[in-house]
Amino acid sequence: MDVRSLPRFGLIVNDGKDLAVQTAKTIQKTLEDKGFEVVRVSSSGGLLGFANPDQHMRAYGYNACVPEGFDSSMALAIVLGGDGTVLSAARQTAPVDVPILAINTGHLGFLAEAYLLDLDRALKHVVSGNWEVEERTSLVVSVMRSDQRRWEALCLNEMALHREPLTSMCHFEISVGRHAPVDISADGVILSTPTGSTAYSLSAGGPVITPDCPVLQLTPISPHSLASRALVFSDEEPVTVFPATPERLMMVVDGSAGCYVWPEDRVLIRRSDHPVKFVRFSDHEFFQVLRKKLGWGLPHVAKPDKN
User: May I ask the CATH class of domain 3-136+275-294?
Assistant: First the structure.
């Protein structure tokens, strides 16, 4: 990657974390001293929040989160924060095809490529253009009433639809592409990408899916039938969820955005034309990440005999 032909960088910062703010100052000075233009914004611009059912819903398109000054002329955007910050940054960058370099200043850092201890090395890779791009599937989640779009967001991990509180069974009619609709009775349903298969869906009993698989996953939450289990299908198939419950439901996207869904609404989920692009310095070995972050595949060690 010839960064000199794209001499602009984005800097997306979780302003609520002092460590991220201080690190951003260091990065901005380093890049500007080398002659690059840096456009700094807050990750809060990608936080949609939850729509108030008594107010006008957010009917803007999924590209409404792109910050001013962000466009395809950027080489990449550096993201400082935890995994939640990365999810917000994805909404700010994917619609304009800007790759993101996630530097973890949070807790788990499942989506991070680098850590603060490696900051100097990471910046050298950035400036030299010694990096590649890994694409991750993203979804466009829309709440529709007839032909009217009432709410829409870009989703990297998952869409979850359930009743408030999450302790009572709901009924859903779900249509996957051209296939016959299915009925599911459960506390809720999760529709996830391969990236999201290691998040909420995993906790609900869904399988882990490697990021390079062109599939989506439907996972019932506490289903009321032994026959209702996670389903994996092609990501070319759009999904429509009809709530067959007389009460309103709560929809949550990536854990930080959402709105109420009423019986007369439907939720439409389709693969976005704009994948989330992650900057990688080397081959991203997914199984190693699973092992390090989630303990997958660690050898079983028996407890010692007390006798």
Answer: alpha beta
